[in-house]
Amino acid sequence: MRNFKLFFGIITLSISQLSFASIPTDEALLKNHINGAPNNVTILKWVASKESSGQKADDGNEYVRFVLVKQDKIGLLQTVFSNAQMLPSQIKSEKWIPDIATQIKKEKNSDRAFFHALCSMLVQNRNEELALVLEKMGQSITPRSALVNEEKMKLLRSYRSYLATNRGRGEEGSPLNPSDKNEKVAVLNLFKSPSVKKSKNVQLEKVRDEFFWKVDYKPVALWFENESRYFRSLKYDLPEGQVEIEAKQFLSFNSTNLFPKTLKVKDLKNEWTTFTLMQFEGKKLLDKAIEKSILANSEQGAATTKQVESDLSVLF
Fold first, then answer.
1. Contact 66, 78 (CB under 8 A)
2. Which of 63, 145, 186, 187 sits in a 20 to 30 Å window from 119, CA-based?
3. Is the dihedral of CA 173, 174, 178, 179 positive or negative?
């Protein structure tokens, strides 16, 4: 009976720590756990419009299709069309990237690297590509394993083993009930300590009337909504300017996947490009026509581009 009371006390104390456990780690936020299981093939279709100093450009819209292919690597076929019909005859530029991670390692354009990395995060629930961009800046994502309170976990494992072998024999010898008073105080303090330590990169921040989780990697910062954990924005400060990416109005697809209706990207020229989602589609297999485009663009076994006429610098 006393063991039961002690065990009940442990459960009560554990519940009291849930408020701390609700503080997310940077690894969890950047893995986009709010999204459902990623598809083998994901097709995104956008209308892209450019602005310069807050004014819309006069050269009209472009239409963008992303095809992300999940195999042992994440491949990307990105195509820009002159018309919303997105017919082969309307292709302005097209590029096949067999491995986004490899491309990001070589990428010198920061807004392009972040845009591709965020698309991988939002579609494939991955933070590996973002980690590569951060690595170039001398920063790294803190793995959850590094935040686990190992001493407390060892204590709980020891007590669980004790309960399994000493059921009904009283509390003598229990790792939670040492005979020495000083040891007992130390054990109690250890048990009250959080199971997962707070990530040094994550803090709750109020912006106007809303609260956001800010993941700060100076000079890069990302913001996520407090309760929903939706990605909202990224800012990267450089001496020559600021790269900024904003996401708005997440929509649900297939009752499983989530993706923002708009993505706005500001480059170092202070020009904004708004990508407004037209279609999100998840598939198990590639369409024959898309597979043909990938094969045509990968004959030399490397990232290739053809008919580069688009001025979307965030893509090409």
1. yes
2. 145
3. negative
- Cα–Cα distance measured from residue 231 to residue 235, given in angstroms and rounded to the nearest whole number: 12
pLDDT in tens, 156-195: 888 888 888 876 666 677 888 888 888 889 988 888 888 8
- The CA distance from 284 to 259, in Å, is 18
Q: Tell me the CATH number of domain 41-139+218-306, given options 1.10.287, 2.50.20, 2.60.40, 3.40.50.
A: 2.50.20
Please name the residue ranges forming H helices in 60-149.
Answer: 100-106, 110-124, 128-136
Q: Nearest 5°: phi and psi at 211?
A: -105, 140
Average pLDDT over residues 228-233: 95
193 or 41, higher pLDDT: 41
Give mean pLDDT, residues 229-237.
96
Q: What is the torsion angle, in degrees rounded to the nearest 10, for the CA atoms of residue 113, residue 235, residue 257 and residue 252?
A: -140
For CA atoms 71, 74, 75, 76, give the dihedral sign.
positive
The DSSP secondary structure of 135-164, one letter per residue, reads: HHTT--PPPGGGTB-HHHHHHHHHHHHHHH
Would you state the pLDDT for residue 301? 45
Q: Which of 198, 199, 225, 201 has its CA nearest to residue 212?
A: 225
> SS3 breakdown of the chain: % helix, strand, coil, rounded to 5?
30, 35, 35
Identify the residue whose tokens are 């069309």. 81
pLDDT at residue 118 in the model = 96
Per-domain residue ranges of the chain:
2-24+146-192, 41-139+218-306
